[in-house]
Amino acid sequence: MDLDPHLKMIIDRYATYTGSDPRRAPAVLLTIAFVESAFGAWHIKGGIGQLSNALQTRCQDLGVKFEFNSRVTEITVDHDRTKGIVIKDKTFIASDLVVANADAEHVYNNLISKNVKSARYEREKLRRSTKSLSGFSLLLGLDNSRGKNVELAHHNVFFPQNYDNEFEDVFNRKIPVDDPTIYICAPKDDSMVKSVNKESWFVLVNAPRHEPDSGWDWQQNGDIYAKKILNKLDGLGMNVSPRLEFLKYRTPADLENYAMAPGGSIYGTSSNSAASAFLRARNRSKTKGLFCVGGSAHPGGGLPLVGISAEIVANCIGKA
Ligand SMILES: Cc1cc2nc3c(=O)[nH]c(=O)nc-3n(C[C@H](O)[C@H](O)[C@H](O)COP(=O)(O)OP(=O)(O)OC[C@H]3O[C@@H](n4cnc5c(N)ncnc54)[C@H](O)[C@@H]3O)c2cc1C
């Protein structure tokens, strides 16, 4: 049966929400379309960062102590049992329970010693998995007094002529997408703009991971790619360039640096096969006392699943 090409593009889009290639991902990912149409899309006033702020406040009310800007450089394990963590290469904090929210690849390959036998199984699983795609994003501040604005919805997706080419570029050719699908979030939220007549947009396109040795090196030419996306937006009639007041772009290499996600993978591993779910990091590690939570652990990436991951781990550990 020939499927309407526009419907095909919309259907293909959902697999990318898990960092996967729609030509290979299981059809079950289409349930996201049902969730979106049945329950709608929701916006938190002030942006998604407000969720972190609310969580922080709630945790502090419950007595949680935060140590910000403190990189964990080791998860200390002795006889396959967690003993604590080391921060900034010098301060040891003892604990027989460690919940790791960092990317599982970072946890098992960088934070736990290669000699820990109980970590070998997870390392091997992660090695066999296909990594999720990454993203190139632009944060735009627009001043509508400089040019005519365009009415947009909150969520907007602009598809290219040839959607398959995007997945060839991202997963096979491993090059920045020449004619990418462009997602624009244009919130109509006064608390997210500097003043009246201004807009703040989040623009995202799918991108290959940062792999200087075997794929694309995103440490270079990010500015050229950002310009290319701006030109495409202008070509789509968005009239961005004359209104542009602020621009910040983030490449997959930036993502790798600030979120410590190897290659800048957005969702840890992809769902590019029916077996992918089983290659994701377990919540309860074989290393006793270690729990993995978040986008690269079971059940997967994206905020809803990350919340479920946290619930599973909280239930595994139980009340203090
Ligand atoms: C551009 C972009 C767009 C996205 N869009 C959506 C979307 O529309 N909807 C959706 O549901 N999801 C989206 N996601 C995915 C979503 O953001 C992730 O699935 C989610 O943030 C993962 O949560 P997490 O807690 O596992 O990891 P993170 O949010 O990455 O948090 C992990 C934290 O651990 C810190 N960390 C890592 N290693 C260390 C260390 N050694 N020491 C100390 N700290 C460390 C990192 O700095 C980071 O702050 C998007 C992601 C990106 C990058």
UniProtKB/TrEMBL annotation:
- Keywords on record: Oxidoreductase
InterPro entries registered for this protein in UniProt: Amino_oxidase, FAD/NAD-bd_sf
SUPFAM superfamilies per the UniProt record, alphabetical:
FAD/NAD(P)-binding domain (SSF51905)
A molecular-function term among this protein's GO annotations: oxidoreductase activity
Start and end of every Amine oxidase domain? 40-114
Q: What protein is this chain from? A: Unannotated protein
- List the top taxonomic levels of the source: unclassified sequences, metagenomes, ecological metagenomes
